[in-house]
Amino acid sequence: MQSAPREIVTPFRPIPLDVPEGMKPNEFFNSTENLNDLIHNNGLLLNPENLLLYRKALGHSNEFDTSIIYNTSNTILNPLGRPVRRTQVPEATRRVWNRMNHVILDYMLEQYPDPDEALVLAGEASLDATWPLTSPGVPSIRMLHNHFIVFPMDELRRAKPADPANPNLTDGGQHSLFQAYMRKVYREFFDTALQLEMLTPASDADARLRLTGYPQGLPSWEVRGGAAALSKAAFWEEYDQVLKGFLDFYRTFFSQVSTRNADRLDDVHFPAQVERVLLCNDDFLATAKKVRDRCVHDAKYANAIRWQPAFKQLIYRNDAGKLIVTISQNSIGNAITELLGVVVNRVPDADAYAKREPALIERLLEVRRRLIEADLGTGLATAQWPAGDDGERTEF
Length: 396
What we know:
This protein has 396 residues and is α+β, with helices and mostly antiparallel strands. It has helices spanning 25-29, 35-40, 91-111, 153-158, 167-170, 177-181, 183-193, 204-207, 233-258, 271-278, 282-297, 299-304, 350-373; strands spanning 6-12, 43-46, 51-55, 64-70, 118-125, 145-152, 160-161, 199-201, 220-223, 311-317, 323-329, 342-348, 378-379.
């Protein structure tokens, strides 16, 4: 079978919500006003750390699809003051989040043990309002959430090839800024800055899925010890190291775009490596000049720049059954699935969704049961499911 990105069709039930007058639909669904729907119609579990597990009403997959959002909408009213990446989450909350990640990933790998039958992935995407605030669709919700998704491989094999020129697919590939001009120094910085034991560098061939040919050209690491490593704090510490390295690279690059020969930022995580690898590298600084010169002369291009770090970081299973960690700049705003070459075409079709819904909810409730058993939250009741083991409805 030819290797190519795939466009999968995912039916959904239209959400019965009225968009307030004067708001565009994408603005509403990215706003805190939509959180009531997440909690009362789709909420599965909530804990004292404000981590909310919910069913994705507009999901990527009807096989298995759920998310955890760090819901700070009521505790931090200033949207620009909310945590939007793991490194900004309080340590106690991050520890609980890591345990939730492990429980859910463990369930996914248990239920779908064969990589030839299911693509399993989980990860975060930055929800920074890193586009100019005047742009349409800026994610005003500004709260970090992650995704847990399973795609049946048969559905992906039957799906039509996606347009390889789709701009959402080029973000993590050869067409992106990092890969086109700075691939060598990008990887050198990661290799120099990160001292990893549970993550070992993976080759492009190991990281790439045969069916889609993605991801393309991204730094990737194999998880030593496989699924068992996900229960260890050391793994999640190294997972955060990967993010910290990315943030240093991105922020340092755009500081040079903004100001020629800018001093090193004071709050980088790896100051010595920033100095020795980045601030003396000709490719790095020449690329910053290309972007800076274009910003000066092209107002539309300058307005589209994401000056603050935007990223996608995920864990997925490769064709050989190994767990792989990778990270990509999110300069276009594409979906986390597109990093692996899967374009999701959501279509409103209540009848088609209803056929898949009972099995999907059964899987989500089993995950919730395991989380409750591990003391990771309290079940939420909706019109479609009870609160959990105690049968009591959670009130707000």
